[in-house]
């Protein structure tokens, strides 16, 4: 089991209202599915993707170019689409999928197409340029 301890403190305005982060930490309308101890949260998710998600919140809330935090590696982008789906981060997920699609056009990555075709977070119509 791999987890990530979040020590960062974000202002409430950081989280968009449609995200589960807002529902967990601001509105309190959804139970927090993390281990909570001494006001710290243990999140059992992919730590590399979660670091990108935290950077997304930081950059977006400060008005900076949040797209800069996206990984260039197709494998990392594929994982990020899954994590963004889990956390209801539609804008991040969409941008990651767009980058993934453009990177797949440039190289032979049939295994990524196979994985994404089975994914519920990948939009219908993700076509392989090799079909």
TrEMBL record:
Domain of life here?
A: Eukaryota
Which SUPFAM superfamilies does the entry mention?
POZ domain (SSF54695)
Q: Which residues form the Potassium channel tetramerisation-type BTB domain?
A: 26-92
Q: Which GO terms describe its biological process?
A: protein homooligomerization
What's this protein's name?
Potassium channel tetramerisation-type BTB domain-containing protein
Lineage at the top is: Eukaryota, Metazoa, Ecdysozoa, Nematoda, Chromadorea
